[in-house]
TrEMBL record:
An example Gene Ontology biological process: cell division
The UniProt record lists the keyword Cell cycle: yes
Protein name: Cell division protein FtsA
SMART domains, A to Z: FtsA
Species, as recorded: Desulfocucumis palustris
UniProt cross-references to InterPro entries, sorted A to Z: ATPase_NBD, FtsA/MreB, SHS2_FtsA
Coiled coil: none
Gene3D superfamilies: 3.30.420.40
UniProt KW keywords: Cell cycle, Cell division
PANTHER family: CELL DIVISION PROTEIN FTSA-RELATED, ETHANOLAMINE UTILIZATION PROTEIN EUTJ
Domain (SHS2): residue spans on this chain: 19-216
Transmembrane segments: none
């Protein structure tokens, strides 16, 4: 098992029976280096360290970097103790969000074939795949986010008869009942991320209650109806044995941290101080601590236990209910408790009370209860040191079978093989983002042009190029052990961009002479109520108005020329503001003396229809060139603050002191008021 090297850079193993096991808990990380010793397990070195701050909640890693620091400290300590290089590790996942499935699979075989270990493993793997398939039928696509993190063989069958072990037998039909456990892939991914950043590869992955059961409920005990409670800081994991097998697993998301939080509340202490107080509860006597306001306080153990009793009641009540549910509605014959959380005084007694058992039937189990475990100078000999020994034992039995090795872009990776694994699955487990494989199209740009929705589409993505063993593949390609994958990451499409000018097509331009200068009149562009240009970059949601410059009045407005104070000449002839421009026209705007303009005088002299004089916001305006006028005509001859309209203001119109509309007729002498509200 490629877990221990003689020195950095070499690949020779110390031996094939040595394993580095890690128990990454909510409050601490425990590591042991152990080897097979006959039927037992000899611990060569061990180390425990606590997280410097809360990085794991209820068994789920939240702050990967902080957990990496703790794992690295344990790894370095063990390497220094033995002078070795650690590269592979056996780990266990907490039972948070645990799902379990019990399945049976059968297989016809050649009756002359002797059943060997590999055939048994293949049969078990078929059971795991069937369990995942059933989970998928129950959960739909959500099941794709769950991985099998461990399983127990409930029973083998040979030609229909129950067997404890199939190896060495012959028969025509073999079967197995498997209890498979599944956790969200996010739990597995976070463990993988921690190991990768600490320079480690997984060689075995199991579930914490499976590991704890392997340590304290050996095969010889499994005929008995027993319950195991592994109460850590974040979760209380449960396993049930009877009829020679582990038949159920479960989890309650209440454990030692809830007790610590209750201590913090009753003692007015921070979390770390409360954790220390909780541990002192196990030794008795008065407890001295400094609270959050800096006051040194002494309190009796019994006083604290009395105040945290409601929390203990809730935890033990929930655990007992789950045990009864998993055990078919009845209490087991006895209960083993491991983990640090179960050491709080009163925990085991309350479990016994709620299960209706005698107190001596619910016992804490420490390292001394782990069959065949050899440890010199054991400094981690309590119940909190049991699970890590079980992790090592599970790894010894199954190492290399739960994982496959694949190479991605030249780098080897070991992946949990709990169901059919595709390229997509593998990339997710080694921290490739799904978007690294798929990519995404560029964002579209949507605008409103003259009241119509217009969409400019973003650029198309370029998917990843995937090769498996030198052949074109896809994210759905199924992988097997030893496959080599080469991936060129996907490229995202470019976000759509556009300038206002792209929408002027169809709004033709014309060339004229204005004041003897050649000008090309492009369409007039208004963006969100403000003047724009063909080069203006558009934003999503912009509202654009595009109008061709068609009349002399529009041209005057663009040039900020007041048509009331200027005479318009086109091709040397008088014209009005509504004259429709044509290619090659020559225009002049000549300033006139309004003081000389009187009704029935200057207008008729120019050959145009009579004009009218109106007062607009206190200023006299002369309207000329039409036989009749409407209120709306005023807007062709005054400056309007477009910014006010774009900001949501409304225009208030008044004619001779009364509310007016855009189509009200105007006559000479009218008084007009225009304002924004």
């Amino acid at each position: 098992m490629s877990a221990v090297l003689l020195e950095p850079g070499k690949s020779e193993l110390i031996d094939n029976d040595t394993v580095f096991a890690l128990d990454i808990g909510t409050r601490s990380v425990i590591g042991i280096l152990a080897k097979q010793n006959g039927d037992g397990l000899e611990v060569l070195a061990q180390h425990i360290t606590e997280h410097e701050s809360r990085a794991v909640y209820d068994g789920q890693i939240h702050h990967i970097g902080k957990v990496v620091e703790a794992v690295s400290r344990v790894k370095s300590a063990l390497e220094n103790k033995l002078g070795v290089k650690l590269t592979g590790v056996a780990i266990a996942a907490a039972g948070r969000s645990l799902r379990t499935k019990m399945v049976r699979v059968e297989q016809d075989i050649d009756s002359g074939l002797e059943i060997d270990h590999l055939l048994c493993r293949a049969l078990e793997n078929d059971g795991i795949k069937k369990a995942h398939s059933e989970l998928k039928n129950e959960m739909g696509e959500e099941a794709g986010d769950f991985y099998c993190v461990g399983y127990s063989v409930v029973s083998y069958f040979l030609n229909g008869y129950s067997m404890a072990n199939l190896e060495g037998h012959r028969g025509s039909k073999i079967a197995v009942e498997v209890l498979a456990t599944f956790l969200p892939v996010s739990v597995v991914n976070s463990l993988y991320s921690v190991l990768a950043r600490a320079g480690l590869q997984p060689v075995s992955l199991t579930l914490e209650p499976i590991a704890a059961a392997a340590a304290v409920i050996p095969d010889s005990f499994r005929l008995l109806n027993l319950a195991l409670i592994d109460t850590g800081a974040g979760t209380s994991d449960i396993a049930i044995s009877r009829d020679g097998a582990i038949v159920a697993y479960g989890m309650v998301p209440l454990a030692g941290d809830e007790i610590t939080e209750a201590v913090a509340e009753c003692c007015l202490a921070d979390f770390n101080t409360a954790e220390k107080i909780k541990r002192q509860l196990m030794s008795g006597g008065d407890i001295v601590y400094t609270d959050v306001v800096g006051i040194e306080t002494s309190v009796s153990r019994d006083s604290i236990l009395e105040q945290i009793e409601p929390v203990l009641e809730e935890i033990t009540g929930r655990v007992a209910q789950e045990i009864i549910r998993l055990n078919g509605g009845v209490s087991p014959k006895s209960v083993f408790c491991v983990g640090g959380g179960g050491q709080v005084p009163g925990f085991t007694d309350k479990i016994a009370e709620k299960l209706g058992l005698e107190k001596q039937r619910v016992r804490l189990r420490g390292r001394d209860s782990v069959s065949g475990l050899l440890v010199e100078n054991d400094e981690i000999n309590g119940p909190d040191g049991v699970t890590v020994a079980g992790i090592a034992r599970v790894a010894m039995e199954r190492v290399g079978h739960d994982f496959i090795t694949i190479t991605v872009n030249g780098r080897e990776n070991r992946l949990l093989y709990s169901r059919e694994i595709t390229v997509y699955d593998a990339m997710g487990l080694i921290e490739y983002s799904a978007m690294d494989l798929v990519g995404k199209n560029g964002s579209d740009l949507t605008v409103i042009v003259n009241g119509e929705k217009r969409v400019i589409y973003g650029g198309l993505r370029r998917p990843a190029e995937i090769m498996v063993n030198g052949r074109q593949a896809s994210i759905k390609t199924v992988l097997k052990n030893g496959d080599s994958i080469e991936i060129t990451r996907a490229e995202n499409g470019v976000d759509a961009t556009a300038r206002a000018g792209v929408f002027t097509e169809g709004h033709g331009s014309i060339s004229i002479y204005c004041e003897d200068q050649v000008e090309t009149l492009e369409p007039e562009i208004i963006i969100n109520g403000m003047p724009g240009t063909p080069e203006t970059e558009l934003k999503n949601g912009d509202e654009i108005s595009i109008q061709a410059v068609e009349t002399a009045g529009q041209l005057a407005r663009l040039k900020n020329i007041d048509v009331f104070s200027h005479d318009i000449y086109v091709n040397n002839s008088p014209a009005n503001s509504e004259y429709l421009l044509k290619d090659g026209d020559r225009l002049e705007f000549k300033k006139k003396d309004l003081s000389e303009v009187t009704k029935g005088d200057g207008f008729q002299a120019s050959g145009l229809s009579d004009g009218i004089r109106v007062s607009v916001n206190g200023r006299d305006i002369v309207l000329v060139g039409k036989s009749s006028y409407l209120f709306v005509d005023i807007f062709n001859h005054i400056d309007i603050d477009l910014a006010q309209i774009g900001s949501g203001s409304r225009v208030k119109l008044a004619l001779n002191g009364s509310q007016a509309g855009y189509t009200d007729p105007l006559k000479d002498g009218d008084v007009v008021e225009i304002s924004f509200i």
